[in-house]
Amino acid sequence: MKGVICVAALFCVFVSTVKGQGFSSSLTASKIDSVRSVACPVCQPPAASTAQCPACHCECLRPACPSACPNAERYYADSNGCIKHTCAGRVTIEEKHLVQDGQRIFLSGANTAWVSYGYDFGNSQYQYRRNQFIQRLDLVKNAGGNSMRTWVHIHGATSPQFDSNSYVTGLDNDGTFLADFKQYLDDALARGILIFPTLWNGAFVKPQWTSRLQGLIKDTSKLQSYLDKALIPWVKAVKDHPALGGWDIINEMEGFIKPGQYNSESCFDTRFLQNSGAGWAGQLYTAQELLRFINWQAEAICRADPQALVTAGSWSQNSQTYQWGKKNLYSDQCLIKAGGKANGILTFYSTHSYAWQGQFGSEAVFNHQFSDYNLYKPLVVAEFSQTKGAGRSAAQLFNYVYDNGYSGAWIWSDETNAVQSAGISALNGKNGAGGLVNFPL
């Protein structure tokens, strides 16, 4: 299967300002969507510049300067509204691999799940935590990594903004969420790091915020308010930014799931999870409710950005393969059956793998090659640790993931900086069968 994305369509766009050709420094990402498609102009110096935006260029998605960009140019709006360009193509999918400009790549990095749990973005909060985020970005950069997974809404404490009836009215109360997140992407781009935001957390319950997330999972009208007022505007605002890697809809939905439930529809029957440990965070929702929650958000992301990469992080391979009597709840058919939206599917899989009582489970990635799972999409190992690595070092764990057909490895943030750095550094400079690690953005 080639090109497992929503749609792959590029347009060559040229924008004229009132004073002449070139991008206006005030052009925002939302305005990019409305410009008219015409022939590429000859490359020329910027028509206008400001103190915040000294080098805006008139650029095209298709190469206006083939000698400068042998593949294709992309433009994007940074946090100052400056329209900039990059020659590097977006990360896409071919067959079962992640690729950039035809080259197989491997995602290597870490989790920065949070600096302040649920209080990192929106209401100008990123500015207070920016130095700590930059330290984490620098750790990955200096170790030779290329990507990071970061949690955002989590339980909905400060983003998105809810009204008294748990309907979403916006991304945050003060209206700074997009500026916060764009600044984070700019900081990541300066260090060559792709960001994969994780929207929600299913591994833990915060009682004071339960009604907010519960409303989105159980009530489709409330979920639609989130899509319309928050998710779609967010995706449209950042979809062209080179540092945006993709979207992780929910962390470990299995914490919320009700195991052991019979359903005549196999996708919603969770008897296979009985006594597996699933449901540790409360057994609050049926499989159908959780899969609909994912399906609707995946479809909204796809609609706003047909090239987006979308995943959802499973707690283990117990629920993400049909091998060994297991079930892939994240399969296209199960997601579509739950939510009814044909484009509400994942473009790549992601899973977590920790040893229990010193041993990895029989289904764990560190006991298998990627091909053993018989999946037809790439699989990223989005959480693991040396502490729960069954005696293996971080470097050994990273090398195992790289050498056994997987598409990425992100070490968990509880490990010391030294341990994380040692693991990421083990793959620095690699360009073998597992893919290129050091690629441009």
Automatic annotation (TrEMBL):
Would you indicate the residue range of the signal peptide?
1-20
Q: Which key words are in the record? A: Signal
- The source's domain of life comes to Eukaryota
Instruction: Name the PANTHER family on file.
Output: ENDO-BETA-1,4-MANNANASE, GLYCOSIDE HYDROLASE FAMILY 5 DOMAIN-CONTAINING PROTEIN
Name it. Mannan endo-1,4-beta-mannosidase
